Amino acid sequence: MSTTVPATAPNLGVRVLSLDGGGIGTLSELLILDRMMYRIQTELRRDAKPSPCEYFELIGGSGTGGIVALMLGRLRMSIDEAISAYEKLRPQSNSESRKRTVEGSRPDACKTFVCAMNAVNMNGGRPELFRSYDTMDEPAIDCMLWEAARATSATPGLFKAVEIGLGAMKQRYVGGGVGHNNPTSRVLAEAEDIYPSSPVVFVASIGSGHSATIHIPNSSNPRDIAKAMKDITMDCEETHEANATRFRGLPDTYFRFNVQQGMQGLASHDWEKSNEVSAHTRNYLTAQDVKEKLSGAVKVILNPVIRVSAYSKICPAPSVRFTGRGGILEKMTEYFNRDIGRRHIFLLHGLGGSGKSQVAFKFVEQSESWLVGTWSHHN
């Protein structure tokens, strides 16, 4: 049973944590978080390390990173507890927890979601989110924690699809790593939806270690080609690069931690190689640039600041030859004057050269007394 409770907007902005999928490499994510929590402990002179749920308003994960997200967010485990539980984790085991994903959640608790894909319909690459909370648009999927954990980690080729629900409502899910192995963009979109009046002030995106170079083999063996295609769908770096670009005008907001060397030779299902993962991660954490990045991250976690992008763009003026499109401008004005309780988005579409940009320029010029927006031009 769940109760719909509106999200309480944080006064000082939203701090989010994103956890990549990666099998045994997810242990590396826990060790990086352990160091982060230790730095917070020493900074605040606490007797014990804090739990991540104390410092993040939203945690999202995919694959085995989703399992860790459930441990840290929904179950509110400490890092030590999560590492202990993770060491006992094996692909064939299920969580013993019978809690439902939403039941018992407090409105002020750290919100948590994990990504999976509907095995029957993957159109658009949109993931299904198993949330610990209801949203204004839809209720959380009604399932047990172990079902959400199995759904997000059901990697095609390693595990069977997971069936959740009863009767006509039964659905089949595969792991969220297919296209969303790095769920950071999904975490950011979710934060904007549930906290529309509070900006994201801190993003910790933690990877499970750099993978080997992806390449198409010279061999025409279908298995080799299929493996390369699968690796592309599960690669995390493109998402990282996109988000690094997104936040380049907002310094000290986006922090990516990912072991650079040593993890390339480990398969995600090499569950017996946890000692190697630990060694590579500890070596990564001794690097000076990583120490400095951790220091910067901890500073922002403890003292979040709402920043304005240094790359904010000024919308150009419309052409002096602009002749109107009064009907479209009236529709835009009417739409943006509505109080819908969230961000307004109005899409202008049409053939190249049909005047979309000029309509947008004119609308901003007419509405500059009350409109705050950004200009993005896509051909």
UniProtKB/TrEMBL annotation:
GO terms for cellular component: membrane. Residues 17-188 form the PNPLA domain. GO terms for molecular function: calcium-independent phospholipase A2 activity. It comes from Mycena rosella (Pink bonnet). This is FabD lysophospholipase-like protein. Keywords: Hydrolase, Lipid degradation, Lipid metabolism. One of its GO terms (biological process) is arachidonate metabolic process.
